[in-house]
Amino acid sequence: MKAIDIARLGTPGLQWQGVVERGQFAVLYFDVKSRSMRAPNGEYLTRENGVLHVFETLLEARRHCDALVAQNARLGCLIYDAAGKRLETIEDEKFATHYHGRPAAWRYTFWAAALFFGAGVCIVVDWFSGWRFIFGMIIGVKLLTLGAFFIAEGLAGLLYYYRRKRIASGGGKA
Q: pTM of the predicted model, to two decimals?
């Protein structure tokens, strides 16, 4: 394993062409919950703490990632080849599906329905009071906005889940 400080790459992004040779594999790290890039120790990725790990074989990269994920379930690994094509994503499946799977998508959808119901109650109570309590309308609109976010998150998660399932079964392209 070769560790390359990303500040020494000299490019604004993570461009490793010329650093990673053909037949080698680069590993980057991400937070499983937020899907944001991270340093190998789990901190937010900055030019000061970022490290690009380069491995000679794919098996060596997988072993490193498996050990890191076993040590810290919040961290995931992305394995790339020298051309920049993502070959594998390694993450703790139990931890990942809690935030980005079918159960999480259904949870978001359930909360969206509850928020829409609460918004309806608030607005109807305000309507029956002759619009004297402006708080019912304000809270109702806020709950509707939050419910719209949750329904979008839930539906996007379900679409992503079913799309991945279709691709895994050989039924379609990415």
A: 0.66
